[in-house]
Protein 1
Amino acid sequence: MNNNNYSEAIALFEGAETIAVFMHINPDPDCIGSALALASFLRNKGKKAYVFTPDTKTISMIPERVKFLPNVSLLNKCDKRTFDLSVAVDLGETGRIGDLALPLFYKGEKSLVIDHHETYSDFADVTVREEKASSAAQIIYKIMCRYDKNAVDKDIASLLYAGIVTDCGNFTFESTSEETFSIAAELLTYDIDFSDITRRLTKFIDYNVYRLKIRVLNETRFFVDNKLAVIVFRQKDFLDTGTKEKDTDGIINEVQNITSVLLAISISECGTDRFKVSFRSKGGVSARACAEAFGGGGHFNASGCRLSGKFEDVFDSLLAVAKSKLQYV
């Protein structure tokens, strides 16, 4: 167990009465589950803890498939604008907090980051970062156990399990470790409905999202002897299927699963000349290196960035970098 700054983090919690927890933009189940679990735990400890989405007002960025999780009703339920402590979970850079939430984050007298990404720039008073952890949830559970394991309940365990099972790819990603399995098994002792959580988050799919998925995958483009696959989500795809950018989550894994594909790229049009790009890799190819070429980052096998420009130029630039990373494979 890596007790990296756990004591300092706990001291911040102990010394704070009001605590605000922040997510990253386009939050995934690990981010959402971790943030809600931490706030719920701190409330059990008698703290006034709140959770903010990136726009601080709505839950529009929260995927529909995640809204069944416990305590989602806590989101943005706070009128305060200053706090004793601000906590950012599952992110390593201020830009990931979002333009609307970032000023609020800095209203905290003290700040803490709990993260597992390999690309980061430290910006808080205390940082707990474990790059080899499968998820932020895995780290947060260990902090909770060090602080007061008795304050963990069934809802918190469910939220943490949701974060772990999704961010480790249902225990298939290379970040899955013996510790990941051990913590997941321990969370089961809280009598959580782990099978329902797993099915809802990794198996179930909305009808409209299914239509989007089939539409886009049917247009997958392959390069470099089928080692590189690119899928594209245009605004028209979202309009025609009644979906949104947040509904693209996980679809890239479908092409990454193809045996020959070592690098998969997903390009999502999120506005006029604005694109969200995700990279997934295997076989020793670095997704992070691709993202970093465009100012992004993340994990070795899962990273992303955001780009602006005409679609054709963005596509060609991504293709050139991807091909360069595959030329020696």
Protein 2
Amino acid sequence: MRDYRLHDLADEKFEELVGVLCRSELGTGTMVFSKGRDGGRDGRFQGTAERFPSEKAPWSGKFIIQAKHTNNPIASCSDGKFHGNKSSVVAKEIPRIKALKEEGEIDNYILFTNRKQPGDAAQRVCNNIVEETGVENVQLVGIENLSRMITLHWGEVRKVFPELAQAQGPLRFYRQDIAEVLDVIKMALADHKGSAPSTSFSYIDLDRKNELNNLSERYFRHMQAESSPYFGQIQDFLRDPINRDMADAYDNIAAHFNNTVTVNRDDFAKFDMVFQQIHDILIERNPTLEKRSRLIFTLLHYMYWACDLGEKADDKTNTSS
């Protein structure tokens, strides 16, 4: 699945994107997005869909389209805020859908969201809407299927959203390599637990490095407190000739991280968010890494300290303690 970073879009832009996709999936008669009598916004289509939910069995009749956007990159359709309690997004929509059904204004309901869609979440949401409103054809389109639609209709989408071509977000690689490196470094840190670090978090021009990369002072203090105590052990491990294979894997990963971050650097106001973006995408690609979340940040912070990630300040110098 390609990462279009839809959480970075404004709500209105997300609605516009859904409109482009619906014109391709349903038909050019799609009207997106009008304000309803209750102040809510929805899209509408009437007729037989061109290819939704499939070309062989398209729905027909009156369609209501909803677009529910979130800026949270890890939000899920299983979250209580979205479905599952009386104040959730879905719960608030049900009375309006029910009223439309009673007035004969809806035969099909499609809910688009950029939230992640766990396996059984869509069925639960759709069953709930069907039971509460009487609308038989209900479809939830989460981030996975939404991204596939964008890719399928890329020619139409890029005309309206050329910025999505650059919104691939750093990092889609090395899932196995990074897991192996993390495991080995974790063991190395455990072996040296309690030992004094052999190097300090110090540069001859560290302020200049942070300025070049636009790393906030607050985040840098966080790095010092949480991660720098382990830098000496990581450095010793990577420099030990017996760990040459792991050091090579680290170098490859760091180089790829740095290259992709450099290409996408303008997408991030502060370097603080680069660390978070790499972390989140690694876990999204390999959920088993979630248990090593803190170690991921420690390794990324080490890469920054070692000048393997981010712009380098002049005359980098490590100071031994």
